[in-house]
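name: query_chain
kind: protein
chains: 1
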Amino acid sequence: MRHIAAYALLVLGGKDAPTAADVEKVVKDAGAEADKEKIAALVEALAGKPFNEIVAAGIAKLGSMGTAAKPAAAAGGAPATEAKKEEAPEPEEDVDIGGMFGDEDDY
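structure:
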């Protein structure tokens, strides 16, 4: 994920075709460990493809994915009636995302 994010930052910064060295530098400058093999595979896979079109295709694919299906209606043809329960919103929890970018430092 950090390699794709670095590639995206380079593209957004104006570099149309970032090299493996460019991506590696961004990852290292962010304080994370760069995996040269993954970076090389990423750059090779994205070579010659406009990044904005790749992102648009990914968003379209995510949008086409359905959500959980509703339960089927009762066998008699009449819809099952259930009392609606109002659920209280759950309080938000603080999520520890430590190590997400390869750093293990506590700030």
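note: The chain has a mean pLDDT of 80.
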